[in-house]
Design a protein that fits this description.
The chain has 435 residues and is mainly β. The protein has helices spanning 12-62, 208-213, 413-416, and strands at 81-84, 91-106, 120-136, 138-150, 163-175, 178-186, 217-226, 230-237, 253-265, 285-297, 311-320, 324-334, 344-357, 360-369, 376-386, 391-401, 425-434. The chain has a single domain (50-434), classed as Porin (Beta Barrel), CATH 2.40.160.10. A 16-stranded antiparallel β-barrel has the order 2-3-4-5-6-7-8-9-10-11-12-13-14-15-16-17. The longest helix has 51 residues, at 12-62.
Length: 435
């Protein structure tokens, strides 16, 4: 017979307290995890709202691939301060670009001559741009106003020492890839048509092709159709190649039209191709362009003797491959601005640029003009970029091949940094900054 043994006394109160403590600990752990999850969810919701708002503003500022035109205009060279209204309809971007340089132009003439009247050297504040851009009423109506100061008279600026509006346009995004622009704008013609300030802010700072064969900027109305891989622009303007912008100017016109079509290969938005330079992080792309123009110019109204009446066709291709860019341009043109006399001219240009180091870009450009007594003009140099591309230091050399005056109808020499006659070579050192 088994005799029951006496069990040790049980402290029920203590056991109950221990169980309660364990349950409380489990609940606290669960509450902490729930609180962390809830807070994480709230943070994710706030971040999503911020990202959505930022995405919307970035789309306004940069334009989606295939969009008609950048509603919130941005400078491809960076810089600037932007003010945006609460509803995003009214915006203002203000930016300043300044180019200062030193030029030495050697035009010493033959070795047996003591005459050296053309050699020049010195410093100058070459260019100042004031940029005002943004939208009015809603993001589909944009504007750009850019007064510019120039220290040199050339075919792009005749008002030396004054602020002259080189851009003054208003654009409307019509939807479906269509847009319309009215005002002083780049005439759709050569490759430099795609870049801010035409030939003046390209990889080598000056496109010799654009100086010899470019049409420049002009008051007019253009219509654009932009798609993922194509872009077509065309419009009517004042007299092409003429800086007069008044309807009753003594050098007015009968009519002037110009148009350009481009085909793009590569998954890159059109707005990302507004810079000629191919930076190391640039995605591969190729753009082929063709253009035509016709202008019936007059030196007097309502009739005049023969005067520059620009007509012609041009074709170009630019390929960018992550730090390397190759350009080729050709043209057949009547009364080209850089020609020494009126008539038909043919021309071509080639440019190669390459980032030898992450911030150091090298470039070489040559331009040929069949009717000129200086058929070839070449430039070569380096760009060093600081703070992205907002600060650019440039050192380069110009070399003309041929005898005689490098000027033409458009006065090339001053802006390029070359003496008018007997120019052997020019050395240029400059700094370009945008803020």
């Amino acid at each position: 017979m088994l005799i029951p043994q006496e069990l040790p006394p049980v402290d029920l109160q203590r056991e109950l307290s221990d169980l309660r403590a364990q349950v409380a600990e489990i609940r606290r752990a669960q509450d902490d995890r729930w609180t962390d999850a809830a807070r994480a969810g709230q943070v994710r919701a706030i971040a999503a709202d911020i990202l959505a708002d930022t995405s919307t503003r970035v789309q306004w500022a940069q334009g989606a691939p295939g969009a008609a035109r950048t509603p919130l205009w941005h400078s491809p060279y960076g810089g600037g301060k932007r003010i945006i209204s609460d509803d995003g309809g009214w915006t203002l971007l203000f930016a300043v670009t300044n180019v200062s340089r030193f030029v030495y132009a050697d035009a010493s003439g033959p070795s047996n001559s003591s005459v050296d009247e053309q050699t020049r050297w010195g410093f100058e504040n070459r260019r100042i741009n004031l940029i005002f851009a943004g939208t009015v009423f809603d993001p589909t109506i944009s504007y750009l106003l850019m007064p510019q100061y120039d220290s040199q008279p050339d075919r792009w600026s005749s008002a030396v020492g004054t602020l002259t509006p080189v851009y003054a346009w208003v654009a409307k995004d019509l939807g479906g890839g269509w847009s319309v622009m009215a005002g002083n704008q780049n005439v759709p013609w050569d490759l430099q048509t795609d870049y801010l300030e035409g030939c003046s802010l390209t990889a080598g700072d000056y496109s010799i092709f654009n100086y010899r064969f470019g049409i420049g900027r002009n008051p007019g109305v253009t219509l654009e159709r932009r798609a993922e891989a194509t872009r077509v622009r065309g419009g009517v303007f004042s007299q092409l190649g003429d800086q007069e912008s008044r309807w009753n100017a003594p050098t007015n016109l009968s009519f002037a039209v110009a148009g350009r079509a481009e085909l793009k290969f590569g998954n890159v938005a059109w707005d990302d191709l507004e810079v000629e330079t191919s930076f190391p992080d640039t995605e591969p792309n190729v753009v082929i362009g063709v253009a035509g123009a016709m202008s019936n110019g007059r030196a007097e109204n309502p009739s005049s003797p023969p005067t520059p009446s620009i007509q012609g066709v041009t074709a170009d291709v630019v390929a960018r491959f992550g730090g390397f860019a190759l350009e080729a341009q050709g043209v057949w043109m009547r009364d080209a601005p850089g020609a020494p006399e009126l008539g038909w001219s043919t021309g071509a240009a080639f440019q190669v640029s390459w980032f030898a180091l992450p911030k150091l870009e090298t470039f070489v450009q040559g331009c040929w003009m069949g009717t000129s007594n200086v058929p070839w003009i070449a430039q070569a140099g380096i760009n060093y970029y600081v703070d992205g591309n907002r600060l650019k230091l440039t050192a380069k050399a110009f070399v003309p091949f041929g005898s005689g005056d490098v000027n033409g109808i458009g006065q090339l020499s001053g802006g390029l940094g070359m003496s008018a006659q007997a120019n052997n070579a020019s050395l240029v050192a400059q700094v370009q900054v945008m803020w």
